[in-house]
Predict the structure.
Amino acid sequence: MITIKEIAKLANVSPGTVDRVIHDREGVSKKTSDRIKAILKEHNFKVNRIAQSLAMKKKYTIAVLLPDYDTENSFWKSPLEGIEKAKEEIRSFGVDVETFSFDQKNPKSYIESFAELLNTNPQGVVVVPTFKKETKNLTDILLQENIPFVFLNIALSGYGNLSFIGQDSFKSGYLSGKLMRLCLNDDDDILTIHSRLNLSNFNNISQRTEGFDYYFKENKLRNTNHYIEIEDFWDTKKVKTNISTFLRREPKIRGIFVPNSRSYIIADHISTLRNSVPFLIGFDLTDHNAQALVDDKITFLISQKPFQQGYRAINSLSRFLLYNTPPSTEILSSIEIVTKENIPDHRQKQHSILL
Amino acid sequence: MITIKEIAKLANVSPGTVDRVIHDREGVSKKTSDRIKAILKEHNFKVNRIAQSLAMKKKYTIAVLLPDYDTENSFWKSPLEGIEKAKEEIRSFGVDVETFSFDQKNPKSYIESFAELLNTNPQGVVVVPTFKKETKNLTDILLQENIPFVFLNIALSGYGNLSFIGQDSFKSGYLSGKLMRLCLNDDDDILTIHSRLNLSNFNNISQRTEGFDYYFKENKLRNTNHYIEIEDFWDTKKVKTNISTFLRREPKIRGIFVPNSRSYIIADHISTLRNSVPFLIGFDLTDHNAQALVDDKITFLISQKPFQQGYRAINSLSRFLLYNTPPSTEILSSIEIVTKENIPDHRQKQHSILL
DNA sequence: CACAACTTCGTGTGCGCACACGTAAAAATA
DNA sequence: TATTTTTACGTGTGCGCACACGAAGTTGTG
């Protein structure tokens, strides 16, 4: 690893001059600049990030705004863990991360938390733009103050965000369609179960459904897809009778598609019914869903690697702040197929060289 | 982030003394040592890895011994790329990586490359222990010289290796069984196609087969599983007629299981036959296999994340050398199910904060 | 009591880089 | 020509840490 000092010696200048050239600062004649640039290229000079971050005294704060989670809906736990991991890693680089949360069902708490967030004067923001309209007002402030921000999990366009970190929902639905077809025979029916309450994540879920349907349409498959919409997933009794009567009426249903992270509820219901259904495809590897998978109540879970998404959001924004390298506008995590047989071992942690 | 200097001030000692306590070096009285330890704990002190690696002048060399690859069998390309990525990342930490390769079919080249490798006086070794007997002699030298080494991809026990980085082959075969069952009806037959030439990777492949068979046995499924062993996968004509006649004789076969990375060859053959087979499960996401997947000639590929394996091998060994933190004895990468619909986008690169 | 040997601790330097500051020489202006 | 201004560079310091060196204070030995 060639150093600035060595380059300086080769070019018969001082390290300071080389430093100026590297950072495109003014105060160097064209002639020497060109000479130094040539030498840099020749020796394939790369700044030592280690030394660089030690020398850079500039501090950054990244603020994160996530929906909060509880035991019943723990989806947002994983992204948060990914964020925490990234936070630990980049601490020594002078980047601090502050996390704020809000109630998914309450736009007001979203706005309030955002205001609180702004008070910390962050140099970068990660936000899950759950509420479309409210987001516009808030991101406009960020644009005005020239604070870069990225969207996590929910893709909105035309808001001026630096990047979107999430999944391709349509594609994941399309994949679900393929998996469903592989399980079913040509004349089996399908049941898609929606939740009417998932307004905040509406985009992702409807795109999953579209992708799913498109798979069958594109391949000219003639399986009938029934739909039911459930008002309240938590009203156990009602959900149960609801589904039960539906299944009795439609005995050809052999596959159930639940395009949200509450699949385990449906799975638990189904498994207690007499007229059970062999195949169920759900989304997101939450603890509850994982349990249902292990108990053979769910066939496939489609995971979007939420941990990685959180991690990457922080990572890409940090790289932008530190090195001014903009991330790609879309960072899509891989769509993972999880079955009982390949559930990732949660104990296995990957350690970074930095920790 | 509290620094050593600050801790020193709090404890009324010099930074040097704190440094001694942190590294358990001698020369500090029990009394002050305890006091300092308490303060360190109280303030949750963590060494700044950035500054540490800059200050540490000790240099390490890790030597890697991999099978080489060509266009026909490109399996080892991915691990190598993972190794290269890790190499770039840890360069500034004073760890260098040197790669050596050998011919998978030639034990002599294995021994020779190993000898060459030893000449570079590495402080750590990553090796794919393709040849069992030969490996024993060579790792004994490493043990004698107290050079830590990890096994990549092939698990041998009783060799004194620091860690094994790879996959759980049995489990991946078991998973294949599950996927196959989901696709098939109760009275469909299966064909498992072995390659007699895969001696060097024999362990992994036979374990896959065992896992596959075990799934059907455990679940008391009565699908008949036929086996054929092919001498030379490259003898196109012979393979084709071979399989063709077999399939004609056994018209109930609707699923094919190929427990090695050459599935694409079988897939290509099958697709040209009149009596085609709908489901094919293979292993490893090589370029050829990916193409066959895209062309709908393969249903599922089981991937072992070879890139990550290479990366992790270097990473864990580096952590051991730098920080003396031993990795877990088994680092098993997740077993990934890949279909045409969720093939990972190869262009999407994940950038570390270090690069 | 003198001197050695050991214990316990402080000091100084440098890793590679960013950046503020200083200083010559060249160019512009009076 | 004398001066100010500008251009083009060199120098020095510190980021947090590891580690070599040295200097007190303490104990042991004759």
In short: Residues 1, 3-5, 15-16, 19, 23, 25, 47-48, 50-58 of chain A lie near DNA strand C (CB under 10 Å from a C1'). Chain A has two domains: 60-167+306-333, 169-303. Chain A has a mean pLDDT of 94. The CA atoms of residues 174 and 214 of chain A lie 7 Å apart.
